[in-house]
Amino acid sequence: MRRQQGHGIGTRRWTCRIGAMSRCHGIGQARGDHRAARHRSASSTRRQVRSSPRRSAPWRIFIHPQIPSDALRDAAYRGIEPLTDLGLATFGWGWHIEAATAALRVIPRGTLDRHPDLQIVLGHWGELLPFWRDRADSLARLAGLKHRISDYLRTNLFLTTSGMLNPALLHHALTVTTTDRLIFSTDSPFQQPTRADIDTFLAHFASDGDRRKISSTNAATLFNIDLTAR
User: Fold this and answer.
1) What pTM does this model have?
2) What are the boundaries of each domain within the chain?
3) Does the active-site annotation cover 187?
4) What are the pLDDT digits (tens) for 13-35?
5) Are residues 171 and 209 in contact, defined by beta-carbon separation less than 8 angstroms?
6) Which of 180, 187, 197, 208 is catalytic?
7) What is the CATH number of domain 2-223?
8) Do the Cβ atoms of 181 and 217 come closer than 8 Å?
C-alpha cells in the first residue's frame, strides 16, 4: 500500500496494488482518470493480474475516483470559476464519470473474458455505469465479447453505497444486479449518514438475510474477511 498526497483539496489518496494483495485482502489498484485507464485496462491490467501472489483466489480491483489530470480538467471541467470547476471535476460529476469510464474500458478489452474470476468494485452505486448499461451493451458486439456489458455488471461488478442512502438508488441497483453484489459503505467525510439514516435505508431490504449481506457478509466473502475473528 502506498500513500499519495491529494491534489487541490488537501486529502490523501491510498493506492493498493494487486502486487500487495496479501496485505490488502486481495484488493487491487484504486486510482486514476480515464487517461490513466487506457493503460490500466490493457497490458497493465494483464500484467498485474498475472503477477498476483494469490492465484487460487478471485482477483479484485477497486477503482476509486481521484482528481482528473490537468489536461482533462482543462478540456472538460474548467471555465466557470475555480471552486465550482473543482467541484465539477470531482465530487459533483467528474469523479464518477471518469471512474465509470475506467471500469468500462476493462470490459471491451476482453479482460473479463480472459479472467472471468476478476471482480471489480465501484463506489457510489457503480459510478453511473449501471445507469447507462443499455447503451453500453452495444459495445459487446463491436468488441466481440462473449456476453453483454450488462451481463458482466451482474457477474463481475460489486457496488458500494458510499453513504448515498437514497432508496431510489437501491431500487435501481436491484434492476441491474442482486443483493449479493451490494456493499454498504459511508464515504466519510463527503457522506456522513446517521444511525437513523442507516436504519431507515436498511428497512428497504426485503429480509434480514439481505440486510446482513449488504452490511457485512458480501464484503467478508469478497475480501476474505473472517467475521468471527476478534
Assistant:
1) 0.79
2) 2-223
3) yes
4) 333 333 333 334 444 454 555 55
5) no
6) 187
7) 3.20.20.140
8) no
